[in-house]
Specification:
The complex is a heterodimer of chains A (about 110) and B (about 150).
Chain A: H1 2-24, E1 25-26, H2 28-31, H3 39-52, H4 54-83, H5 89-95, H6 97-111
Helix pairs in contact in A: 1-3, 3-4, 4-5, 4-6
Chain B: E1 4-5, H1 8-12, H2 15-39, H3 41-46, H4 52-71, H5 77-107, H6 113-148
Helix pairs in contact in B: 2-4, 4-5, 5-6
The chains are: A mainly alpha (about 110), B mainly alpha (about 150).
Chain lengths: ~110, ~150
C-alpha cells in the first residue's frame, strides 16, 4: 500500500512540475514539448530501479521506445482531428486513443 | 524564433486544475506500476508513454484559450482548438525526444541509476529543443519559398 502511495506522490509531483514548466514557457508549440516529457517514466523507472534493479529498467525502457513512437503517431492524429475534423480537445484526445494502443502493441508484438 | 517565459498563465489557472494534474499524474504512475506487476515489465514499459496526461493538458489549454477569448468578447472555440493543436504538435516532437530518453537510459543502465537518469534526461532536453528548432527552420523555409512565388 505504501509503495502505491509513494508512486502516486512521485508521479503527481513530476507531472505537476512538467505541467507548470509547460505553462510558463512560450511559444505554445515549444510548451507542447512538455506534454510529452518523461514525467511518469522518471517516477516509475526510479522506483523500478530501486525495487528490481537495472535489468528490469532496461526491459521497461525498451518497451517505452515503442510507447513513445505510438505517442508521436497519436499526437499527429490529435492535431489533425483538431484542425481538420474540428473536434474539441477532449473528444480528439479520446477518439485518437485507439491509435496509441494499436501502434504501441503492434510495435511491441513485432519488435518485442 | 523567441523562446520566453511568462508567469501570467499561472495566475490565470484555477487551483483545481493543478489538483487534476497532480491526481492524474499520480493515478497514471500507480496504473503503470499495476500493469507492470500484473503483465510484466515489458507491457508496463509501453504505458510509460501513455497519453493520459496529454488528454488533460490539451483540454485545459483549450479551455484557457476559450475563456480568454470570451473575456475579450469573442467566441473562442477555433482559437482553443488551434492552441490545443499547437500543443499536440509540440507533443509529437517531445515524443521523439522521449524515444531518445529511453534509448539513452537503456544504453547507460550499467553506469548506475543517477548517471543513467541524468544522461537520459539531458538527451530528452537536447533532442526536444533540437526537434523544435528544426521544425521552426523548416517552417521558415517554406514560408520564404511561398513568399518568393
Amino acid at each position: 500500500m505504501s509503495e502505491y502511495l509513494i508512486r502516486f506522490l512521485l508521479g503527481g509531483l513530476f507531472v505537476s512540475l512538467f505541467s507548470i514548466i509547460g505553462d510558463i514557457v512560450r511559444p505554445k508549440s515549444f510548451a507542447g514539448l512538455f506534454g510529452a516529457a518523461p514525467s511518469v517514466a522518471l517516477a516509475t523507472l526510479g522506483i523500478a530501479w530501486a525495487e528490481h534493479g537495472a535489468s528490469y529498467v532496461g526491459v521497461q525502457a525498451t518497451a517505452m521506445i515503442w510507447g513513445a513512437i505510438a505517442l508521436a503517431c497519436y499526437s499527429i492524429v490529435v492535431c489533425q482531428l483538431l484542425m481538420r475534423a474540428q473536434l474539441g480537445a477532449l473528444a480528439a484526445t479520446l477518439v485518437a486513443m485507439p491509435v496509441w494502443l494499436l501502434v504501441a502493441f503492434e510495435f511491441h508484438a513485432v519488435a518485442g | 524564433m523567441q523562446i520566453g517565459l511568462s508567469t501570467s498563465p499561472l495566475a490565470n489557472s484555477r487551483w483545481y486544475e493543478y489538483v487534476i494534474r497532480f491526481v492524474l499524474g499520480g493515478a497514471v504512475t500507480v496504473f503503470t506500476g499495476m500493469i507492470s506487476s500484473e503483465f510484466g515489465a515489458s507491457i508496463g514499459g509501453l504505458f510509460l508513454a501513455l497519453p493520459a496526461i496529454f488528454c488533460a493538458s490539451a483540454t485545459l489549454i483549450e479551455r484557457h484559450e476559450i475563456r480568454r477569448k470570451r473575456d475579450a468578447g469573442g467566441e473562442g472555440a477555433r482559437r482553443g482548438r488551434g492552441a490545443a493543436a499547437l500543443d499536440a504538435t509540440g507533443a509529437a516532437l517531445g515524443s521523439v525526444a522521449m524515444v531518445a530518453f529511453a534509448i539513452v537510459l537503456l544504453v547507460t543502465t550499467s553506469w548506475g541509476a543517477a548517471a543513467a537518469f541524468a544522461c537520459a534526461s539531458l538527451a530528452w532536453v537536447v533532442i526536444a529543443v533540437a526537434m523544435w528548432v528544426l521544425r521552426w527552420i523548416v517552417k521558415r523555409g517554406i514560408r520564404r519559398a511561398r513568399a518568393r512565388r
